[in-house]
Amino acid sequence: MKKRYIQFDNPPKIISASSVVGRKENEGIFHGKYDIVDETDSFSQDTFEKSESEMQRLAVKKALEKADLTDGDIDALFAGDLTNQCVSSNYGLLNYDIPFFGLYGACSTAAEGIMLSSLMVGYGIFEKAIAVTSSHNCSAERQFRYPLEYGGQHTPTSQWTVTGSGAFVISKNGNGPSVVGCMPGKTIDRGITDINNMGAAMAPSAIDTLSCFFKETDTRPKDYDLIVTGDLGYEGHRIVKELMYENGYDMGTQYKDCGLMIYDRKKQDMHSGGSGCGCSAVVFAAHIYEELCNGKLGNVLFLGTGALMSPTSVQQGLSIPGIAHLIHIKGCDK
Amino acid sequence: MKKRYIQFDNPPKIISASSVVGRKENEGIFHGKYDIVDETDSFSQDTFEKSESEMQRLAVKKALEKADLTDGDIDALFAGDLTNQCVSSNYGLLNYDIPFFGLYGACSTAAEGIMLSSLMVGYGIFEKAIAVTSSHNCSAERQFRYPLEYGGQHTPTSQWTVTGSGAFVISKNGNGPSVVGCMPGKTIDRGITDINNMGAAMAPSAIDTLSCFFKETDTRPKDYDLIVTGDLGYEGHRIVKELMYENGYDMGTQYKDCGLMIYDRKKQDMHSGGSGCGCSAVVFAAHIYEELCNGKLGNVLFLGTGALMSPTSVQQGLSIPGIAHLIHIKGCDK
Predict the structure, then answer these.
(1) Distance, in angstroms, between A44 CA and closest chain B CA?
(2) Same domain, yes or no, for A260 and A146?
(3) How far apart are the first and last CA of chain A?
(4) B311 to chain A: which residues are within 8 Å by CB?
(5) How far is B86 from chain A (nearest CA, A)?
(6) What is the ipTM of this complex?
């Protein structure tokens, strides 16, 4: 049987990470830790879609600045988002004179981009690549749910699409956490049709990837300082814990979810937590990345989770497939 | 200055190619050369979107059969399409137990997928990968233009979205044409806002990639047996010829466009030609691939061209960026 886990002989480094967010995100747990915040969520643009594009532009600009690089130093951009035809990336990154690979992995896109960038850099195809992704609550709401003006009620299992963009510079050389391996996800559909319960739709793919990873690497959850899924929320996080336990893996308290980490549940009513392409990207960039750099975190599994439906497929009654891409990262030495 | 052209030390092989099309495509120039044809365009499904998914499933099945492989032999799928959130790929490929990378490159997706598969295989990350893409005229029409029942008139520069899916097995070993190099495209926007003139929107990116390729490789158009763009149509093909000539490159008669090759202009009124993710994929699979295998074609440049707008971005008055990914392929020895 073939192995899905790809281990790097020469692990590429994440030499910089940047985060751009809106008001609610900055009012959450990681207040003050984001690189760029616009309290108006508009980023000086006149449509929600343009605001999201602008967030990607700013995230890449900031990631380049932090790494002391310009776009001429970068071999490729791996970018995607949730909007139809991924226009946030297409328009947002027009300014950069860098070869462009468009991705669609729903909310797993941050991990998909970091994975492809790492593979390209780790195997010597490119020297430096950038992975970038975004979501904007307002562009997502009107596309996937209702016009904002309608003021539709959210159900308890629904999640709040994060207004955020994260960018990561992956390099052959330099300082930063190392991507030591990765495992691409498989599309899995367990029949969930409730568009307000993405956590349940995505959990089976996270379980598939995690189980396969632990088996292939002969490790256990306790071997990691942090195992973090992208945006399963309360519902999906609970399902993963329960079913992994039934599979013989106690996920322990080090298993977290970016969707649960980002907002302040005591002060902010975000139902089942955060979601969207931007959720795992900004939590990783603003928080996890820092702890990997300063030695607080050593051995981390980062799983991007995505729900692969469209508004049309849901209206047509199809169930929602999920996918979970895993990145295995090691922190900098203390 | 960094080079964009990536040349393989160990060129991967395209060991099989499959094509699945509808009625109008089979009535075109390559009548009888497609692997699977459904004259009803429905592929036994009850929605256009499901028909498109089914086409991708069939294309992968046929490509595997032709290579005498099963899904267990394949390390990764690189897949995408034009539908919102790429659901044709997400749903169509659920049956296959293969790690999945979702792509969005508009009509350039076939080339983007072949490029990423080739890079992954050529640099030893994977042994075998499949690139697959599709478009369906009916799912595209109602998403990008008007409901079919409305019977909207097309303008002369508009193109006909191909109902087709093509899949390609890229392998380290085996027989077939070699991918000897590739050049990823950059997103380029020259201000075209007419959604019925995709050719003009995509032509600048094709010109950028071609000019850069000829410069970096120090070659001329006459050094190639065939240079073929994906779906620029009459308008875009003419623009590329004219502007490349002004840049000092006579593209010659060996410069063709899949959108011009697929339909029979004498019998079929397809305005400016074919378009869509499926266009270049099925022309490559059903025709070019065969000529590369039987030695009729030796040295070929295949450019996937994509228009990176969405219906929303066009309604909001934004111009249409384009992208063109180039694959350099050498045929089998006679």
Answers:
(1) 16
(2) no
(3) 38
(4) 84
(5) 7
(6) 0.97
